[in-house]
């Protein structure tokens, strides 16, 4: 642990001797995983077992001997600042100082670090941590290792803290709902060589650069490590962020960027913690897990009944992990089960059962209520006969009689739920409407203050849709015929995020249902047994043929590709209206670079646009369509050829074509082989590509083979043709 | 055998198959127990594999398993041994000019002495060996060799099935009646019968909680804990130093046993006596689950006379705390002795009930089992 000094080192202190240990705390996650709650309150101030998350982080930073903390606030910066001003962190005299840095334009961790660099407050090595981290580890060893490495090798810019996570059925619940992380570490030096945080579970495949194996004597690949998101950085990290102004995400851009691009020889090292605790609240699932870890005292001394800075109340710990604040009023017949926290001045009614839950301050819980595995924040009123399981309920919520919350429900601030409503599983309810358009890339948990005002017109429509939602879930709501959410203002039901149910159940507060877990496991096992995994793998959706980049495939890439395709089409449309062909090529090329796509993707997208164009002209029968298509192909063949330099790209075009025929526009289906022949004749497609396509499809399902069958004759002819060609050549 | 008797130890050493080196710093009180250094025997035995012609490979395997500690627990060890003997009998053929009864008995004797060298016998194994020998002796002389062998093999199968497998099922059946909703059950170490009881009670839908008490150095409770948690039971895990804290919550204590002696003393994994004693002082019933074939007519009043010494080295290491190495090279310090006892004896006062396949009996009634089911009946059905 860094030794503390009683007075601040002034400028004339020799720097080598004593540099105060500094920390940068990002009080903004730059993500939307906690929406809708974070529309009204910043994530770092959300209570985690009745204390704001930032308190855990600050308390830990103090305990490891950090002297100065710079809290970077962005979204809801006023709230964070006023909280810190009123808290003991800034009031207490002594060595531990907390200062805030505010910026409203930062939209990512990268921006935040650039702002901090501008301020010029960081003077040496610092700890980079986000304000939602809970830990009790000792940093002394990691800091020492980091400093030693820096002495030997100034390029060792960062030390990442990782910890072991056990790979078993049970810990699927506790992997915090994160993406699976795969990292390669040099077992000797602990240098991080490869980092991938979006490994697709279903594929069970990662691609490593073969140079990794050439350059390093030994590599250990880990899928059993958790990233704690605590980094020890040197000053150079800030410079790197300034130099590479496109770095946004700490892991996705910065770490991967350093590893892949080898910028100035910078290296990242890892430090594995053994028995201590470190975890970050990233999503609802990790919120649930970490809360339980705190209640079960894995994070000691940061547990509810120990007075560390930040919580002043004397909370009593009873047997079986039941925590009670002083002024709890509890009925004699109420049954409080293991691992429950009851906040100050909370009232619990007769025959109420509470287990595995955290109840905040000043809550009123009625009679015959059942609460299990839930998180109830402050000043919540729960009337008689409610049933809550694995739900999260924010401040000031009012649940009227007989409300049933199914697993995974999130209810945001001050919502009122009417009598006997059943809120279906995984719903999110808020007084604020869901933003209709979401920035797909980098988001802020930042809401304009005026979105709070609800317009009556929009409200009506939302109410309708919400009713529909309920009708699907239960019949109860319809029978009651009352508006679902009454009182201070009707609420909005947020539709699920793009991830779909899979993502939802992985990241929700509720435990993963046993059936689902089994499914996940089985898919893994069957994947392991899959006979041979070629380097080219078609994802289940059959949307695109992944190239080497997208084999790490996931929803993001798919979406990016669709976006890219649209852009190419728009460009192509401009080409129709008279823009020069060269310019079209130039534009598509720049698009390719900006979207990080391959040549093959361009070819596919362009071909798609051409085929679409063919559909624009009216046609009544397939012959006309054929004629149209041929016309278009002749017209744009040159442009297309520009992108078809290798068989791979041609291959991509065929697949795309197949896709078009089977998916979007079935009109082309009967013409498949004709057009294919035509493309061959026009020398747009080489026979090699067609043959390899045919070969590829031989092993496929029957349903996949429709088009190969259609083109069978043509392929057969092609197979025989080469010999003739050879003869021709020989003759010549 | 008294191991503090120098001349007898010398004699035994000459006969021994396994080369044993004695521990240097012996504990005075336990000098009479076999105290061999653990560790060097295994490579020695491995190298001697082809020279020990008279020991059947299956028995040899069992011996190695005892040595490495890969098979522990009374039932498992007994089963392994019987299966080893079964293989040996299958491959046995009477040498010319010898009788099967005599020759096979001496063969079994040599196997047993080999096994004892690997690890001292448990009471259950002793009973099983006695049973097998008496069956051999009682073979009708007019039987052919193959008939005799098949008789013995079916006897061994019967023994395993009736005395261990079915007995366990009956014990589980009995013990489950004592588990009610809302109970908190405490167990120590890892007993297979107790594990079966807990899992089955959970499957029957009884609502209860389990406290697993564990003790160093073996930490067998972890295995039990893992199995229980896998089955979805609510568990609390703690070490034996917290026993008096946790005992407040407990309603029943379930323990396994290595042997039950005729004065009602329960001979079990070290720590069980402590658990039983604390439970007794908290007025919490202690139920011992033990198959009747582990009963023994002997009387034991302390855990000194008959016990087993484990490897003293293992208690000098603390699991996952490598920095706590103050006991390294302890054997070079003359005035330091480490004692790693494997068993202890629980006096019958601290035992409320013994659950056997013959029913639930108080510890004072152990002699009744001997009388009613007699030694003959007990062993020769």
Automatic annotation (TrEMBL), chain A:
Keywords: Cytoplasm, Initiation factor, Protein biosynthesis. It is found in: Cytoplasm, Cytosol. The keyword Protein biosynthesis applies. SUPFAM superfamilies: ARM repeat, Nucleotide-diphospho-sugar transferases, Trimeric LpxA-like enzymes. PROSITE patterns: W2. The keyword Cytoplasm applies. Gene3D superfamilies: 1.25.40.180, Hexapeptide repeat proteins, Spore Coat Polysaccharide Biosynthesis Protein SpsA, Chain A. Residues 558-728 form the W2 domain. Belongs to the eIF-2B gamma/epsilon subunits family. Component of the translation initiation factor 2B (eIF2B) complex which is a heterodecamer of two sets of five different subunits: alpha, beta, gamma, delta and epsilon. Subunits alpha, beta and delta comprise a regulatory subcomplex and subunits epsilon and gamma comprise a catalytic subcomplex. Within the complex, the hexameric regulatory complex resides at the center, with the two heterodimeric catalytic subcomplexes bound on opposite sides. This is Translation initiation factor eIF2B subunit epsilon. It comes from Platanthera guangdongensis. The lineage of its organism: Eukaryota, Viridiplantae, Streptophyta, Embryophyta, Tracheophyta.
From TrEMBL, chain B:
It is found in: Cytoplasm, Cytosol. InterPro entries: IF-2B-related (IPR000649), IF_2B-like_C (IPR042529), NagB/RpiA_transferase-like (IPR037171). It comes from the Eukaryota. Keywords: Cytoplasm, Initiation factor, Protein biosynthesis. Component of the translation initiation factor 2B (eIF2B) complex which is a heterodecamer of two sets of five different subunits: alpha, beta, gamma, delta and epsilon. Subunits alpha, beta and delta comprise a regulatory subcomplex and subunits epsilon and gamma comprise a catalytic subcomplex. Within the complex, the hexameric regulatory complex resides at the center, with the two heterodimeric catalytic subcomplexes bound on opposite sides. Belongs to the eIF-2B alpha/beta/delta subunits family. This is Translation initiation factor eIF2B subunit delta. It comes from Platanthera guangdongensis.
């Amino acid at each position: 642990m860094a030794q503390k000094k009683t007075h601040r080192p002034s400028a004339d202190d020799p720097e080598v001797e004593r540099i105060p240990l500094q920390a940068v705390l990002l009080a903004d996650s730059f993500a939307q995983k906690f929406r809708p709650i974070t529309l009204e309150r910043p994530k770092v101030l959300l209570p985690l077992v009745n204390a704001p998350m930032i308190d855990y982080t600050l308390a830990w930073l103090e305990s490891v001997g950090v002297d100065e903390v710079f809290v970077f606030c962005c979204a809801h910066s006023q709230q964070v600042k006023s909280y810190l001003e009123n808290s003991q962190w800034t009031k207490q005299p002594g060595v531990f100082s907390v200062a805030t840095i505010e910026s409203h334009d930062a939209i990512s961790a990268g921006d935040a670090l650039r702002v901090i660099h501008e301020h010029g407050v960081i003077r040496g090595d610092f700890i980079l941590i986000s304000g939602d981290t809970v830990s009790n580890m000792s940093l002394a060893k990691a800091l020492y290792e980091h400093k030693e490495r820096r002495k030997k090798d100034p390029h060792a810019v960062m030390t990442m803290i990782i910890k072991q996570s056990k790979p078993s059925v049970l810990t699927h619940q506790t992997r915090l709902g994160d993406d699976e992380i795969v990292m390669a570490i040099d077992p000797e030096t602990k240098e991080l060589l490869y980092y991938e945080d979006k490994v697709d579970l279903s594929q069970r495949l990662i691609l490593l650069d073969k140079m990794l194996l050439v350059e390093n004597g030994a590599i250990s690949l880990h899928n059993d490590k958790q990233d704690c998101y605590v980094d020890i950085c040197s000053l150079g990290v800030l410079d790197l962020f300034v130099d590479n102004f496109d770095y946004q995400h700490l892991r996705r851009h910065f770490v991967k960027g350093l590893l892949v691009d080898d910028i100035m020889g910078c290296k990242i090292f890892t430090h594995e913690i053994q028995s201590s605790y470190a975890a970050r609240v990233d999503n609802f699932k990790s919120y649930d897990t970490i809360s339980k870890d705190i209640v079960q005292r894995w994070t000691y001394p940061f547990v509810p009944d120990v007075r560390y800075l930040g919580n002043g109340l004397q909370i009593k710990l009873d047997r079986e992990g039941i925590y009670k604040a002083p002024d709890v009023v509890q009925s004699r017949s109420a049954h409080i089960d293991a691992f429950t926290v009851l906040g100050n001045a909370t009232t619990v009614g007769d025959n109420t059962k509470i287990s595995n839950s955290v109840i905040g301050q000043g809550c009123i819980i009625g009679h015959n209520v059942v609460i299990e595995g839930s998180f109830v924040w402050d000043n919540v009123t729960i009337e008689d006969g409610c049933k809550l399981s694995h739900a999260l309920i924010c401040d000031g919520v009012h649940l009227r009689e007989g409300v049933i919350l199914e697993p995974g429900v999130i209810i945001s601030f001050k919502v009122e739920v009417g009598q006997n409503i059943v809120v279906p599983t995984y719903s999110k309810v808020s007084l604020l409407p869901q933003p209709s358009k979401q920035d797909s890339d980098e988001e802020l948990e930042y809401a304009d203050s005026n979105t709070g005002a609800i317009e009556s017109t929009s409200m009506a429509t939302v109410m309708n849709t919400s009713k529909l939602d309920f009708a699907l879930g239960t019949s109860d709501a319809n029978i009651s015929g009352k508006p679902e959410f009454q009182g201070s203002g009707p609420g909005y039901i947020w539709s699920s995020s793009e991830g779909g149910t899979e993502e939802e159940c992985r990241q929700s507060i509720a435990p993963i249902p046993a059936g689902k877990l089994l499914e996940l496991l089985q898919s893994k096992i069957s994947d392991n047994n899959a006979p041979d995994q070629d380097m080219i793998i078609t994802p289940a959706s059959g949307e695109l043929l992944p190239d080497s980049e997208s084999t790490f495939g996931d929803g993001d890439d798919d979406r990016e590709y669709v976006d890219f395709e649209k852009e190419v089409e728009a460009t192509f449309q401009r080409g129709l209206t008279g823009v020069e062909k060269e310019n079209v090529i130039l534009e598509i090329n720049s698009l390719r670079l900006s979207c990080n796509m391959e040549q093959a993707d361009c070819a596919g997208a362009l071909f798609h646009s051409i085929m679409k164009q063919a559909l624009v002209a009216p046609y009544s029968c397939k012959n006309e369509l054929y004629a149209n298509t041929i016309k278009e192909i002749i017209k744009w063949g040159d442009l297309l050829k520009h992108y078809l330099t290798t068989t791979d790209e041609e291959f991509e075009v065929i697949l795309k074509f197949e896709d078009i025929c089977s998916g979007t526009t079935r009109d082309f289906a009967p013409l498949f082989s004709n057009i294919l022949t035509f493309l061959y004749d026009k020398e747009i497609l080489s026979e090699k590509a067609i043959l390899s396509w045919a070969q590829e499809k031989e092993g496929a399902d029957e349903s996949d083979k429709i088009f190969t069958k259609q083109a069978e004759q043509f392929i057969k002819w092609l197979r025989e043709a080469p010999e003739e060609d050879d003869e021709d050549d020989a003759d010549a | 055998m008294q191991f503090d008797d120098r001349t007898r130890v010398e004699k035994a050493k000459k006969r021994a198959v396994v080369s044993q080196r004695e521990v240097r710093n012996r504990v005075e009180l336990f000098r009479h127990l076999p105290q061999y250094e653990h560790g060097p025997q295994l490579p020695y035995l491995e190298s001697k594999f082809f020279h020990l012609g008279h020991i059947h490979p299956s028995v040899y395997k069992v011996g190695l398993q005892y040595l490495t500690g890969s098979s522990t627990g009374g039932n498992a060890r007994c089963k392994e041994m019987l299966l080893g003997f079964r293989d040996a009998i299958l491959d046995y053929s009477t040498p010319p000019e010898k009788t099967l009864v005599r020759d096979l008995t001496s063969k079994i004797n040599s196997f047993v002495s080999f096994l004892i060298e690997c690890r001292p016998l448990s009471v259950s194994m002793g009973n099983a060996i006695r049973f097998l020998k008496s069956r051999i002796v009682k073979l009708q002389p007019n039987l052919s060799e193959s008939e005799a062998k098949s008789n013995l093999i079916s006897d061994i199968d019967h023994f395993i099935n009736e005395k261990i497998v079915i007995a366990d099922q009956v014990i589980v059946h009995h013990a489950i009646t004592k588990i009610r909703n809302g109970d908190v059950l405490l167990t120590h170490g890892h007993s297979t019968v107790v594990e079966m009881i807990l899992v089955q009670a959970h499957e029957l839908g009884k609502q209860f909680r389990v406290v697993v008490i564990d003790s160093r150095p073996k930490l067998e409770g972890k295995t039990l804990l893992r199995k229980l948690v896998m089955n979805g039971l609510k568990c609390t895990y703690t070490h034996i130093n917290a026993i008096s804290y946790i005992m407040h919550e407990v309603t029943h204590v379930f323990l396994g046993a290595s042997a039950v002696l005729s004065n009602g003393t329960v001979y079990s994994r070290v720590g069980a006596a402590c658990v039983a004693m604390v439970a007794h002082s908290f007025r919490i019933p202690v139920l011992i689950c033990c198959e009747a074939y582990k009963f023994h007519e002997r009387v034991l009043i302390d855990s000194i006379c008959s016990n087993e010494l484990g490897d003293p080295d293992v208690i000098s290491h603390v699991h996952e705390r490598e920095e706590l190495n103050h006991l390294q090279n302890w054997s070079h310090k003359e005035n330091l002795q480490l004692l790693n006892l494997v068993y202890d004896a629980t006096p019958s006062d601290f035992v409320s009930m013994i659950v056997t396949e013959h029913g639930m009996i108080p510890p004072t009634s152990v002699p009744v089992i001997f009388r009613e089911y007699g030694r003959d009946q007990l062993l020769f059905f």
